[in-house]
């Protein structure tokens, strides 16, 4: 770290205030609009005409975000303006991901960040070529992650389109093809159950062990985020027999954020889950598991299911509501025939998801090492850092 120096953020940059803005949620403009938690819409004219870092100003969670093109910031956030050309703003973004922005609290009724407090934070800064090199390494990983996410969105859209084409569109429930029938989800499953919290058994989470899935572990795109799992020991797992998950079980969130779904794959096992996640175990002699998964993604099915939610401390669905969901059931032979393409698409989605997890782990492992100067990036090839976890 011979070429690194310690500064305060106030020495090298200023935080510029965002401005109030109307109609950004409905605007047809192409300029991204950012608030304290990220992008919130679009507008016609930029407030900041250079790529920069957006830092949350108000709210319990104040995020750090980056825009590679001109953007607008509303009045719940700041944007970073360098005082000289010796600060690479992408480096600044990655550095600030390690700062506890939420710990900078002004003490007002609404949690907020004061510029004065931010300016006192220390930052270790190498020379500009090293900053750029570090930013390039981390950006390359983020770009691969984003590429895989976009691929998965496209693959998921294709799978849903095929499912609708084969089993939904032009299918009249009053005049079903021969051998098709309308049934209930409970009729074509071995089990619909849920878990419990280990603390109810006077057990605690542990540092590592059996994966324990929560609603937050299930992403909006249908994968399980390995970085948002808890862990239980084997003794606790044995006590929670009812909620041990199996390969190709379908997980469905039934409390808090409703309707998040994932299909369990071997990579996540062994695993267990809590009372906010339902386990739907298909009867493979009657139904293709992915048929249930894509049926439960249909908008009409979700609307009908969510209409039966109960509002308590938080919104929730009962297991009996899931069991009573109506579902069109084609003969298994037709399911098997039509699902060849959908299964292949789903396998690609799963493979991409695994790579996203590996890349994310690599990025999060490298980030503090790169920002501390532990890795000399000017003497190390990027491939040498990437290869161990991707091979």
TrEMBL record:
All copies of domain Type I restriction modification DNA specificity, residue ranges: 2-157, 177-356
Coiled coil: none
UniProt keyword annotations, A-Z: DNA-binding, Endonuclease, Hydrolase, Nuclease, Restriction system
A Pfam family annotated for this UniProt entry: Methylase_S
Alphabetized GO MF terms: DNA binding; endonuclease activity
Gene Ontology biological process terms, A to Z: DNA restriction-modification system
Domain of life, per lineage: Bacteria
Family: Belongs to the type-I restriction system S methylase family.
Name assigned to this protein: Restriction endonuclease subunit S
